[in-house]
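Example record for the data management plan.
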Amino acid sequence: MTKATQIHPDKVRAYLATDYRLGHTSHDIILTVGQRSERLATLFADNAVNCGAFLTAYNPRGAIQSDAANDLAHAQLATKLMELELQAIEGSGSEDGTEWPSEKSFFALGLALDPAKEIGLHFDQDAIVWVGGDAVPQLVLLR
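Corresponding structural encoding:
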């Protein structure tokens, strides 16, 4: 994570406290920034990849948008990932104990860091969560 940022420290704290969920079932993989995920490591091995990115197009720059605007942005993100021929698992990001709404997201398997940052910037996001071969999620600030 970069030290110098334009993002308010409270937002950074919220991003670090968020649970990043892959899937919508009882078998979801929940990622926590800085903590290795054995289940994600297994998913990487099963899909012959060594990285991935958790991405959202919801609420650019952490500013609440309408449901319609968020749904449209989410659909555009889905299209972008399909164009890149990436396997993506739909999920969501949320922080327990807050009123901030859950944000629909995707985990893109095999997406390298630089292209993941480009997608995050394209959708005007403050940050992405990227995971390398060690299966430890990292918060990557984009501003």
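Summary line stored alongside the record: The two ends are 11 Å apart (CA to CA).
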